[in-house]
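User: Need the bound-state model for NAP:
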Amino acid sequence: MSEIIDGKAVAARIKETAKARAAEFERVAGRKVGLAVVRVGDDPASCIYVRNKVKACEQCGVASYTYLFDEKTTQSELIEFLGKLNADGKIDGILVQLPLPEHIDERACIAAISPQKDADGFNVVNAGKLFLGERDGTIACTPRGIIELIKATGVPIAGKHAVVIGRSNIVGKPIAALLLNNDATVTVCHSKTRDLRDYTLTADILVAAVGKKHFVTADMIKRGAVVIDVGMNRDETGLYGDVDYDNAKNVAGYITPVPGGVGPMTVAMLILNTVDGARNE
Ligand code: NAP
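Assistant: Bound-state model below.
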């Protein structure tokens, strides 16, 4: 039976750190750390995520400024607005909630955010710094949170075989780079990978970022492995991870639940990224 990695508890500790740093910033700068949250359209999941992020700001003493745009907003209107936020002295971090409507190019919008205010760490400058192993960039929130969860188990990362399923720019690639920077031997799997189970069965650390409910079954997991489930798959019956948790927990050494695993860490790291960005200005 595996040990459950309590993402809520680890996230609470990260938020306490962020709160203390935000209070120190306010004392020195004479204003609160500020996070701009930009949402375009009314995607229901995005509304929930934005609400959670605003709530976390309140808990940590960070001022949040929410900007809601109509679904029909054009790309150039959005980019022009992001330019204003870049120049706004009360804003230290900018978050554009993804996904954006189809007529807007997400890459162009992320590129329009100043790297210094890129709280999500998705900008090419910050992504590039991560891949070069430079420490002064902003690391994407979900991967940064995953590393903290693995460290919370006490299992050393160095020398371990880490297998990441998924190669997206926001989860798969950056977590692979971070694990490599932490001296793991990393294998990245994706939809064209043949015989996936051959790889997952050799994983000391398995990160599932696929976006498919219960995709990783117990027979794909090495006994005793650290299993991190990034998936957030909603259907009419509830929220599910990418891992078949009920059976996987009998094989894994440590495992994150969904909800209550990676999700709370993503929000906590967003706040910490914003506060750290303000302190580095
Ligand atoms: P994504 O962009 O859709 O990427 C999914 C990845 O899974 C792709 O690289 C894809 O391969 C791979 N894949 C799909 N089918 C596969 C298969 N049969 N075998 C092996 N690999 C396969 O998704 P994402 O944005 O990375 O998100 C992944 C999941 O994490 C989603 O459920 C999302 O909601 C969740 N998420 C959670 C948080 C959080 O805070 N907890 C944050 C971000 C995302 P190809 O590249 O070959 O297509």
